[in-house]
Design goal:
The chain folds into two domains: 149 residues, no CATH class; 214 residues, Cytochrome p450, CATH 1.10.630. With 512 residues, it is α+β, with helices and mostly antiparallel strands. The radius of gyration is 25 Å and the shape is globular. Strand 2 and strand 3 form a beta hairpin. The N and C termini lie far apart (93 Å). The structure holds protoporphyrin IX containing FE. The site of protoporphyrin IX containing FE (HEM) has 23 residues, from helix 6, helix 14, helix 15 and helix 21. Belongs to the cytochrome P450 family. Keywords: Heme, Iron, Metal-binding, Monooxygenase, Oxidoreductase, Signal. This is Cytochrome P450.
């Protein structure tokens, strides 16, 4: 083909593209402008980028990842931009980022039906979890949620005996001579044993030293690899490309997760054959076996629940004990509350735990400063609006086109000075105690959201808090000395949850 033919082809292509653009402007574009005007929308603050496609932001994100300072960077980002809702173009995607409670409420609750959990999440998580409560929407999600809901009724959540059995195993396994113990991995075993016992009727029993926990260890390692299948310290542009290539280790790890869940199902089927009597409480796995004929679906639901119940509660519990170990004043006050509400040797009841205001304040404050799910994303299913963020004062609605995403940063919202005061970066449980901190009681509403909100609010919230509070009380009752053995600051380890990558290193002593 000669030069002129190439030139002609080029001109034809450009004309076609221009015509397509004109057509788009006259149809979709004009509809969107009309929609935006009708709703009084004004553009949001735009993040200026130096490189095309926001590549400079990607490079900066990667640098912060390598330094384990992504969360700190997110908090600073909103402060530096001096805005709460920001419009970004990021590697070919149109994303709004926000730490505005009104916008988050709209996406999660008021306009729930206009937003999806996003194709990326369904595809990525679905590839190793299968279809379950975390990876589905519409009727499939509704069915999962309805099957799970009875597990979390008060009568079930308030059953302390299950928590006690596993917590006693944890306490028995700890060194009590004052040597350094990292509580974090043990707490991860604990939450996994409790979640499996509570929801499947069969515990993974990884804290039971008489049992071989080879499969549990393998499962945990596989899960951790799937969440972050690259070396964080060598993260670079190449890593992005690498993630698109086939990965045999990823497949192997997915198989390990599936085999692990299959073993639980097989065990339950065998137990049913040998003893057909049903337990008195509602057990999620039993209900699934009775109502869902598809084995793969059952396995997927189990894996979805492990994701939900293990790392989350263990991160909270580990953070709380880490904080108590290095804050003698807060620890002493909590010890006094335990002594006055329960006593030092007696098992706490569900009601007593609920009545402990200072313990609850510590839980709140830990989740405020170190939210276990620090950020999350949704995708617009239709052209829609956010109620705030438009114009220089951010008080006007913002137009969001179908397909754009919103990333809401709970971690930044929990540090907002206008909501929490000038000491928003300080760990101060008293801010949650009416009349003890500041001139007016703290009522953050949607400005405090560790468990999300709206129809997809965390279904395990009450269970997680009861579990964490129970373990904290039992630990303090058992160990009059709980001291830190870690001089490092809290440092993030991020996958889809955030925990302290330095663990929870403490020294414990029993009474003489
Ligand atoms: C401190 C502990 C926990 C925290 C901070 C937490 C936080 C969250 C958050 C933020 C979500 C919303 C996710 C989203 O919409 O994308 C969520 C959903 C969920 N959580 Fe939790 N969670 C915790 C413990 C648990 C436990 C112990 C269980 C169950 C044993 C559980 C079960 C679930 C389930 C099933 C969902 C999905 C709900 C749905 O999509 O309908 N969570 N959790």
């Amino acid at each position: 083909m000669g030069f002129f033919s190439f030139a002609r082809l080029g001109v034809a292509l450009l004309t076609l593209l221009a015509a397509r653009r004109v057509y788009w402007e006259l149809t979709v574009g004009s509809q969107r402008r009309a929609f935006s005007t009708q709703h009084g929308c004004v553009p949001a603050h735009k993040k200026k980028t130096r490189l095309p496609f926001g590549l400079d932001m990607l490079l900066k994100d990667q640098k912060k990842f390598r330094e384990y300072r992504v969360l700190e960077y997110i908090i600073e980002f909103f402060r530096d931009e001096n805005a709460h809702t920001i419009d970004l173009r990021y590697v070919g995607q149109h994303i709004f980022v926000t730490d505005d409670p009104e916008n988050i409420k709209t996406v999660l609750a008021t306009d729930f039906g206009r937003w999806s959990i996003g194709v990326a999440r369904i595809k990525w998580m679905g590839s190793f979890l299968g279809t379950g409560i975390f990876t589905s929407e519409g009727p499939v999600w509704k069915h999962s949620r309805e099957t799970l809901r009875p597990c979390f009724e008060r009568s079930q959540v308030s059953d302390i005996s299950l928590l006690d059995k596993h917590t006693t195993r944890l306490i028995d396994s700890l060194s009590k001579d004052g040597s350094t113990v990292d509580l974090q991995p043990l707490i991860q075993d604990l939450t996994m044993d409790i979640t499996s016992d509570f929801l499947f009727g069969i515990s993974t029993d990884s804290l039971d030293k008489s049992k071989d926990d080879k499969h549990t260890k393998e499962f945990i390692k596989a899960f951790e690899y799937i969440m972050v299948p690259f070396d964080v310290e060598n993260l670079g542009l190449w890593t992005v490309v690498e993630q698109l290539l086939p990965n045999r280790k990823l497949k192997k790890c997915t198989k390990i997760l599936q085999d692990f869940a299959d073993r639980i199902i097989d065990e339950e089927i065998a137990a049913r054959k040998s003893s057909p009597s049903k337990p008195s409480r509602y057990v999620f796995l039993h209900e699934l076996l009775d109502t869902v004929p598809d084995r793969i679906r059952i396995r997927s639901e189990l894996l979805n629940i492990f994701l939900a119940g293990r790392d989350t509660t263990s991160a909270l519990l580990s953070n709380v004990l880490w904080t108590l170990s290095r804050s003698p004043t807060i620890q002493s006050r909590l010890r006094r509350e335990i002594t006055s509400h329960i006593g030092d040797a007696v098992l706490p009841t569900f009601t007593q735990l609920k009545d402990m205001r200072y313990l609850k304040a510590i839980m709140n404050e830990s989740q405020r400063l170190y939210p276990v799910v620090p950020s999350n994303t949704r995708e617009a299913l239709v052209d829609t609006t956010l109620p705030r963020g438009g114009g220089p004062d951010e008080q006007s609605p913002v137009f969001v086109p179908k397909g754009a995403s919103i990333t809401y940063h709970i971690v930044a919202m929990h540090r907002r000075v206008d909501v929490y005061g000038e000491d928003a970066d300080v760990f101060e449980p008293a801010r949650w105690m009416d009349g003890e901190h500041g001139s007016s009681p703290l009522r953050p509403g949607w400005g405090y959201l560790p468990f999300s909100g709206g129809p997809r609010v965390c279904i395990g919230q009450q269970f997680a808090l009861t579990e964490a509070m129970f373990v904290v009380v039992r630990m303090l009752q058992t160990f009059p000395v709980l001291e830190s053995r870690d001089s490092e600051p809290w440092t993030e380890k991020i996958n889809i949850t955030a925990s302290n990558r330095n663990g929870c290193k403490v020294s414990l002593r029993m009474a003489e």
